[in-house]
Amino acid sequence: MRMGSSWRWQLTRAIRLALRWCWVCCPRRASKGGGFVKWWIYCKLLLKSLYFNSQNNSDTLLDCVFEPVYWIVDNVTCWFGVVFVSLVILLTTSVVLIVYLFVLPAILSNYSWHWVIWHLVCGHWLLTMVVFHYYKATTTSPGHPPKAKVVIPSVSFCKKCIIPKPARTHHCSICNTCVLKMDHHCPWLNNCVGHFNHRYFFSFCLYMTLGCIYCSISSKDLFLDAYGTIEVRKDNCRRPPFRPPPPSDTFSVTTAHKCVIFLWVLTSSVAVALGGLTLWHFILISRGETSVERHINPQREQKTVGDRKGRHSALCASAKAF
Ligand SMILES: [Zn+2]
Ligand SMILES: [Zn+2]
């Protein structure tokens, strides 16, 4: 299009809009109170014509409003993944060290030989399983759809990766890639949980829960002893002035008490929290669902039922017409 004709077309459009505006606001045409209503409807129409999209709904609006929040969460989770993995390694190492330094010597000195063998075998087996499954869950790729131009059975198209998505594939906004049979993005693994590492994730949760329960039960007597000693020491601090002070514990004894209390509180808390998560994933696995599908399936079922009802009522109406 030439510049002259474009300029004329823009001018014509502006004049037509101005004339239409005058027609709406014309006092002769506007009846009493009706002018404002027409003017309001016209303004609403103009505004809607600027933003109208047949795909718009409340979900799209919420997504747009929370887009900056999603961006911050995605990026922070991506960076904090390294911190979370370091935290898991640090806490697990500290628990193992405390067990070797304080709990195992108490077991060796207080239990009979067959209980000692049971503790040694059970404890080391749980430790091996936790380390192995955590390593595999962290390092195994969850599985991605092929990016080469191959014909694969797909049900939809990823707008971000520009590739066809096979069934049960979802886009992870933190990894910025599509993941096969995606369950969720786990910050404690700094990895997505998907088709190829789901079993490692679940096994890690299961063995970590069992390991925490084992540590919690094994160190219960030591914890009660350490807690009681600390409480007695607090009472002695509030003694009457005429009583002599009790002999103070050595630094190693005080450290041992604090370490045992830390071990018991940490393992008991993790056992409860991770046990709940493991149970939830066990239920999902028994239902053949992932966490993502558990979230989206009820919405899809509602939509399917609504579509079915709509088709049924349309068929009934056409049958009555005939
Ligand atoms: Zn994608
Ligand atoms: Zn991910």
Automatic annotation (TrEMBL):
It catalyses: L-cysteinyl-[protein] + hexadecanoyl-CoA = S-hexadecanoyl-L-cysteinyl-[protein] + CoA. InterPro entries: Palmitoyltrfase_DHHC, PFA4/ZDH16/20/ERF2-like. It is found in: Membrane. It is a multi-pass membrane protein. The keyword Signal applies. Residues 1-33 form the signal peptide. Keywords: Acyltransferase, Membrane, Signal, Transferase, Transmembrane, Transmembrane helix. One of its GO terms (cellular component) is membrane. GO terms for molecular function: protein-cysteine S-palmitoyltransferase activity. Its EC number is 2.3.1.225. The keyword Transferase applies. The chain crosses the membrane at residues 78-103, 115-135, 200-219, 261-285. Residues 156-295 form the Palmitoyltransferase DHHC domain. The DHHC domain is required for palmitoyltransferase activity. Belongs to the DHHC palmitoyltransferase family. This is Palmitoyltransferase. It comes from Takifugu bimaculatus.
